Amino acid sequence: xxxxxxxxxxxxxxxxxxxxxxRALARAMMKLGEVLIVAxxxxxxxxxxxxxxxxxxxxVDYRVNGKRVRAFAVSxxxxxxxxxxxxxxxxxxxxxxxxxxxxxxxxxxGITISGTVCAAIEAASMGVPAxxxxxxxxxxxxxxxxxxxxxxxxxxxxxxxxxRILRRGxxxxxxxxxxxxxxxxxxxxxxxxxxxxxxxxxRSLVREGKRKFLKGYELNLDREAPERDSDVRAVAIDYVVSxxxxxxxxxxxxxxxxxxxxxx
Length: 264
Prior knowledge:
By secondary structure, this protein is α/β, with parallel strands linked by helices.
């Protein structure tokens, strides 16, 4: 039976339940509360907030430092994993959902493609405070379970900001905190508040032929383009940790004068 005096922290990701990034996150979150893991069975990168998959679910023997953690693998997307976690497997209201640690940064105007970020968005839509955590890596690692990636710094900052959310609540006006850790970061790396860049950080690749089809993506970084206060500049140029408060409000701030001009 769960200890109701301890905060329940739900973990999810988009890389799959066997990801070393998820295990590093679990190790960090176990120091803050009771951990429940409900994650996709397989790789679900770039699924966004999609509701797709068979939803077959099985319990997993998941151990961290020899301690067993309640864990379930879902044959579906991160958003569906979140809904199962919150509606089926959480024995009490979670204090926090943390998504990650993702192989690859989630910055710029493509964050809504990210299964990592959109898992957090799904949790927030259900009233649960949510933190998305990503570790910048070369593109060829994005769909790997490589042990070459060091998640210690990302786990440290995930724990730092998870603790703040548990103690202080979410930053007022934000539904999600999107945390990105640059390559080569350490526990001493500086962090800064950022906004989501309008720039396209990853550019889709299309192969030409009889049929045109998507074939992955590549880094699209113009070092002069990112806004000075943006997540892209923080992570990819200044190599500091990016902390972006994110909200559901996608409404453009169109002035009354501009509306009047447009209506003529």
